[in-house]
User: What shape does this take?
Amino acid sequence: MGVYDDAVDLSAVYPTLKALEEESFITAELVDESSGPPRRVFHITKDGRRALDDFIEGIIRVVTSDIEYFQNRYDAIQ
Assistant: This one.
C-alpha cells in the first residue's frame, strides 16, 4: 500500500524491503549482469504470497465491496 503513480517516496522503499525480508515475506539475491555492479533482485516467498493473499481477501475485497455498496446506494438516491 502507498505506491501510486505519483510521487513515490523513494526513501521508504529500502526500509520496507528490509522489513519484508526480516519477516521472511521476500528474499533477495545479488545478480551480476556483467555491466556495472551487481544488483539486488527481490522474490516473494510462500509466506509472503500467503500474507499478500490474506491482505487482498481480508481487507481489499471487503473495502471494495463496501465502496461499491455505498456507490450503489448513493446512485439510487440521486
Notes: The radius of gyration is 19 Å.
